[in-house]
Automatic annotation (TrEMBL):
Domain (Nucleotidyl transferase) ranges: 8-231
UniProt-recorded Gene Ontology molecular function terms: transferase activity
Entry-linked SUPFAM superfamilies: Nucleotide-diphospho-sugar transferases (SSF53448)
Pfam families documented for this protein: NTP_transferase
CDD domains with a match to the protein in the record: NTP_transferase
Keywords, ordered alphabetically: Transferase
Record lineage: Archaea, Thermoproteota, Thermoprotei, Desulfurococcales, Desulfurococcaceae
The protein's name: Nucleotidyltransferase family protein
Gene3D superfamilies: Spore Coat Polysaccharide Biosynthesis Protein SpsA, Chain A
Amino acid sequence: MTKVVAAIPAGGEGTRLRPYTEVIPKPMIPIGIEEKPVLEYVIKWLKKFGIDDIVLLVGYRWKQIRNYFGDGSRFGVNIRYSIDNDNYRGTGGALLNAFKNGFFDSDIVLVWYGDIIAPIDVSSLIAKHIERKADIVIVLANRYKVPVGVAKVDKDKVIGFEEKPWINLYVSLAILTITPQLLTYAEDHLGTSFDIMGDLIPWMVSRGFNVIAYEYHGSWYDIGGVEQYKKLCLDDVKIFVQE
């Protein structure tokens, strides 16, 4: 059987969520009717698909996360903590740090950022990684809602205007699967401090690695900033956060 370990980046300072994150780390931001941490809902969603070996990549105020989740036993999972190292910066560096410390004794690592909620069929995602013999599979939404009004202009005359339109554009949900052994090659070329989305994936594409798209058509939410958090509708997320 294919062994899968989930890695959840949860170590950022959450600057876009200040002042909330001056007190609590971003993954502990409460959502849903019961106001439980967003990270709890992510962990419970992974558990539904049999992903019960979870590594939290932690740093900023990480003891709050550990004090709440412990070893994961009360959630029916096994949680381990990879603590950020100053020599391994960025989301990619945090992932590499965990790999080099033996956290990923698995065939596939499912990376799910700790502030993203989306009711994705995780089993289908893993199956695609296996079937396509992928090096990495990136979850992509096939459209994106622009957060501002968009104008169409002819010279200096506005001839069209649409408030917050949907556009057909593939965008990353910050969820992906990766064959962990490839991180060794990444370190040789990218060093120990790099970003997963900004550095690792573009490098893999440019080097001809087998990078596969997993197209997702459902709703998803990024609890990354104050505005997104304030506008989060409980009805919109109830499918994801249901007990």
